[in-house]
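Same chain as my last thread, 231 residues:
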Amino acid sequence: MFVIIVGGGNIGSHLAKMLLDGGHTVKIIEERLALLEKLPNELPVEAIVAGDGSSPLTLENAGIRKANVLAAVTGSDETNLVVTSLARFEFNVPRVIARVNNPKNAWLFNQEMGVDVALNQADILARLVAEEMSLGDMMTLLKLRKGEFSLIEEKVHPLSPSANKSLRDIELPKESVIVAIIRKNQLLIPHGDTVLIPADEVLALVHAAHLKQFAILLGPKEPVIRDGKTG
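reply #2:
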């Protein structure tokens, strides 16, 4: 896959390195002299294109007509929107991704501006923090479909309503599926007769609306209070 990245800051350079390590072809466009002096220490020289990423000529020189994906990740929302519009409407890049710096500008990053996926850093971070605060030991590993689904990891509590039950006897929330179980450092592929035991690490794909319900399913039972006592 051929990816063009506009913006050679920390995000852009890290993304470029990750993609190159994954065997993809990458061109990263940057115009700031200080970054152009730094980038060769992190990336192959042939991957770096000096110039203004919002210029059609610079994009042409980077080979945008052959690009499969363009990611606009500069620190300027205005620049990112100019780049995405050019990528989609001038050069017909199949997949266009943009970084949103100011959450107040998020509404601008839409299909009309050529954006397929808008990554709103502040919103993503805020949601992750909120989830970690409210879901106990549940860990979000990956967001899918713009945050609509999450790949999560949750450990089975000894007092969980699901502990020592087979999967066929556990009523999972809607739009949720257990995809793997880690037990004593061994990865298990779950089946209907697989029994969850305390300390199992469950990997599951869960709709955002049902994360809390899923956490309750694997967490400790909530105590029932009778006559001022727990039971």
